[in-house]
Predict the structure.
Amino acid sequence: MTSRTTVQAFFDEQTWTVSYVITDQDSMRAAIVDPVLDFDFKSGRTSAVQADRVLDYVRARGLTVEWILETHAHADHLSAARYLQQAAGGRIGIGAHIREVQSTFKKLYNLDRQFLPDGSQFDHLFEDGEIFHIGRVEARALRVPGHTPADMAYLVDGAVFVGDTLFMPDVGTARADFPGGDARALYRSIRRILSLAPETRMYVCHDYPPENRPAAWETTVAEQRASNIHVRDGISEDEFVRMRTARDATLEVPTLILPSLQVNIRAGQLPPAEDNGVSYLKIPLNLLGRSATP
């Protein structure tokens, strides 16, 4: 079956993140998935080098951006969703369970009353199984919790964009120890994804490649079922949970979790400027440990 869409990937070497532009070739309408806003932690400065790569691609091809899709509220990079929306339009969408994540992190950051954990910062909140369109191409939102409560995958034209649920087969799967994460839920979400047709193309959000290969981000359901080191066929739920729990206990807190989440729960909007015209990020002290659980 001939694809009606094209997929262009943009890999950010600083955060190991892959963003995508999905284009309906008939209408030249597009969706952007998981865009990155550059952030230098040392200086506290943001920039749009990665986002401008996406923007240049969109403009050079005369694309109309209909959607900016977030697979979840990322803990390893700031979202460029708002920056790209202001430059190119489109509706910012995320899973409806983002409200749970917002409630958790509103408490952690002690955000003021003006921040409402109701998802209203986003233009659209996807429900599980919801159908939407990119141009004339049908797409479907799939709720895949476990890494966080709000993770979504997007199934488009024989391809699935899985966010942080799965990595390349030789890297494995996402951690499940963030607030609201759950290894059993993650396993069940992954098996749901792996129940798609074997030839379904799979696009991951991150790659942390071993030294013997370059970064990669496209695989298939069949390849994952055959060789994913954490969750290939034959690995039971209990085996996975034991592995994932033990492994997560050894992982450090992501470098950008504290700056990124207070931006990403706002759909990529920086915190409101204070009376001197400057926006500030909060760093709560002594709340996060190695497990990333407050």
Summary: The chain has one domain: 5-255.
